[in-house]
Amino acid sequence: MADKLRVGIVGAGGIAQGAHIPNYKKCGERVEIVAVADVAVDRAEACAKAHDIPHFFGSVDEMLSSAELDAVSICTPNKFHSVSTLAALKAGCHVLCEKPPAMTVAEAEEMAATAKAAGKYLTYGFHYRHSQEVETLKRFIRDGELGDIYAATAIALRRRGIPGWGVFTNKELQGGGPLIDIGVHMLDTALYLMGYPEPETVFGATYQKLGTREGVGMMGSWDWKNFSVEDMARGMIRFKNGASLVLESAFAANIGKSDEMQVKLMGDIGGAEVFPLEVYQEKHETLINATPAYMPQRNSYEVEVARFVDACLGGPAPISTPEQGVMLQRIINGLYDSAESGAPVKL
Ligand SMILES: NC(=O)c1ccc[n+]([C@@H]2O[C@H](COP(=O)([O-])OP(=O)(O)OC[C@H]3O[C@@H](n4cnc5c(N)ncnc54)[C@H](O)[C@@H]3O)[C@@H](O)[C@H]2O)c1
């Protein structure tokens, strides 16, 4: 087993330079970032210079045919997750692909099948799973402290958090708005904690009320004239085991808080909120709210990248799997389909 991982980066934007590259660097001698590729080749060049990466390219294919790589991070807009991931897997690389898995279920399925055929890891950038809160609560759940989790809520709401950069408001490039961008994080976190139950039916509604007009922006000023995604998505998922999950996500909504990222779980023994962690139980004829007096804090992106590197070098397999990526994509796309038709969608 190699003791050094040769890594390539696809897409030299915010998440690559803010999370992937610095956290690969923190792995020290175990990782060498060999190359970066971006369709905007000047961006690839600037990124290579800024982070001391020896090679840069104008496309993923050029990078894969020119550089010797073991693993690739896919950090492009959502539309290019699938095509870049397939190319990297077929070139014999492990892949850490940013969330969401893809734009369509067919793409996510092909990505999973290709990873399996190639015998390579494909994992997704669901960094909240690697947070201390989620990991600690997972231990409570494994010990049966919540019992049977039959109800959950996933919340990813921003008051006026329409991104003023990137392509987050472009449906063609992203596939949607807050549901596929931030709702997907809390949905994945809830499903992970629930043990990824098989979904049965979804019912969704989307709105475009605030994004298409000028207004106050807490994340910069956005291009409201070309805003083509939903600004709010709500939905309910029923699982085959009878459990249900309610989801709310918005880039902009008239709410009191600036933003809220939260997962709530309700089981027949206990319940919990995840951010910050709080566990609810009934004990000794008393209703108890348990909160950590101290919990070590950590950077969940750093843990995500370090664990991907570990897996590629022979350590434990990634906790976010291609099959879960397919299930998540079925739910997301099912919610969008339901919102469009106005009827529940059987998955
Ligand atoms: N995990 C998280 O918390 C998190 C946070 C932000 C973004 N993301 C995800 O990361 C991805 C990128 O987001 P970002 O904020 O870095 O966007 P960005 O716009 O800052 O950067 C994207 C880069 O990809 C390049 N690009 C576009 N098409 C390409 C292609 N076909 N091949 C190579 N490069 C290409 C663009 O030129 C740009 O430099 C998105 O999928 C987003 O959902 C995840």
Automatic annotation (TrEMBL):
Highest taxon of source: Bacteria
Positions of the Gfo/Idh/MocA-like oxidoreductase N-terminal domain: 5-126
UniProt-listed Gene3D superfamilies: Dihydrodipicolinate Reductase, domain 2, NAD(P)-binding Rossmann-like Domain
Residue stretches making up the Gfo/Idh/MocA-like oxidoreductase C-terminal domain: 138-347
InterPro entries: Gfo/Idh/MocA-like_OxRdtase_C, Gfo/Idh/MocA-like_OxRdtase_N, Gfo/Idh/MocA_Oxidoreductase, NAD(P)-bd_dom_sf
Family: Belongs to the Gfo/Idh/MocA family.
Name of the protein in question: Gfo/Idh/MocA family protein
Highest classification ranks of the organism: Bacteria, Bacillati, Bacillota, Bacilli, Bacillales
